[in-house]
Amino acid sequence: MITGPSLLLLILASILVIIVLTAKFKLHPFLALIVACFFLGITVGIPLPEIVKSMEKGFGGIMSYIGMIVVFGSVIGVFLEKSGGALKIAQSIIKLTGQKKTISAISLIGAVVSIPVFCDSGFILLSGLADKISKLSNTNKASLSLSLATGLYTTHTLVPPTPGPIAAAGNIGASGYLGTMILIGLCFSIPVLLMTQFLSKKLGKSIVANEKHSVEEKKQNDSIKIPSLRNSIIPLLVPIILIAVGTILRFIGVAYEWINFISAPVVAIFIGALLAMFLLRPKSKDNIKGWFAEAVKVSGPILIITAAGGAFGGVLKTTPLAEYVGQWMTSGESDDILILLLIFLIAAVLKSAQGSSTSAMVITSSLLAPLIPALGWDSAIQFSLAVLVIGGGAMTVSHFNDSYFWVVSQFSGMSAKDTNRTFTLITGIQGVTVLLLSVLGWVIFV
């Protein structure tokens, strides 16, 4: 089996295969990942039956952890969206902050809503709000749209239970530290959001946004009978609180079987899904089935891409990569900060090349997984910062090949050119900011 520098070149070639197939030939990421599995396994010299076994093990392993979490998280998101619960949370935050701080308020709305709701859906749902706030507060609509879009984007890549961070944690064997990742991800989100609010105000003030799509969304939102704030926020907060409390109690040495049970991510998010179905249920029973079916449909593409990334990770673990890197580590030529920079760059290249933040996080974490034993990372802080670095790379950058870029452009009323010189620029700065915060955190706490 091939090892040494040649192995690294073949792994790089397999990443290029994924990039070319998705970016140039528009192949679905699932198929591109499966092709890359066979390419890497065959060229490295893994026996053919072993390639299949490693793919199956990696595919099933990640699905056993992330599968139910993604489905239950999608249920919360869809019921929040369809019931108007997300809109109620948004309106309440604006009422709390006041109209003079509308850019900050709409950024916070995006950050809160994107924890359970995919950022594409969240922006479509709330884009009409930017038009309404703009008229009420005399604030530039483009600045509001940019602040909303980047607020959604921040927690989408930094805070579980969104699929990207969940998948990355599962791939590197850090599923037991999910509560810590939520807490650190939320802490990191604060400076990132402050930075995006400043840039959104500065870059958006000279842009005149078209109101066509926002007006349509406003009419749609006005027709929704919105639930109470209590009912809207409980399905979102309960899972996060359960996971966080369980993590804190285990950290201080307090452990009970029932606490460990209900704070397990799959159980906590399942409880949140049940609460969403009960508190945000539609009047018609048929609609409940329809909303649930839509949640399953939404989670499908995420699951198959994530599982294919797990298969790719399974093949990587079968190569001599861990042994080779382990020798490199013991030779004293490596450094943890260098590793963080490397995984950030890999995630950034993958994101910029093929458009999907989730795919970039899945692939990068799959590459990192075989290195964990050699690196000697074993603490919650180390795993959390590693996932955040991957998330920062997966932010960098959103441009023409990213579906979210076009959602922001079309529903904000900004031209593609204006979106590229504002939103794309901010996403790049977001990613670098997360990298710097992660490196600083590593130097101080590790």
Automatic annotation (TrEMBL):
InterPro entries: Glcn_transporter (IPR003474). The chain crosses the membrane at residues 6-23, 30-48, 60-81, 102-126, 177-196, 233-252, 258-280, 292-316, 336-353, 383-401, 422-445. Keywords: Membrane, Transmembrane, Transmembrane helix. The keyword Mitochondrion does not apply. PANTHER family: GNT FAMILY GLUCONATE TRANSPORTER, PERMEASE. This is GntP family permease.
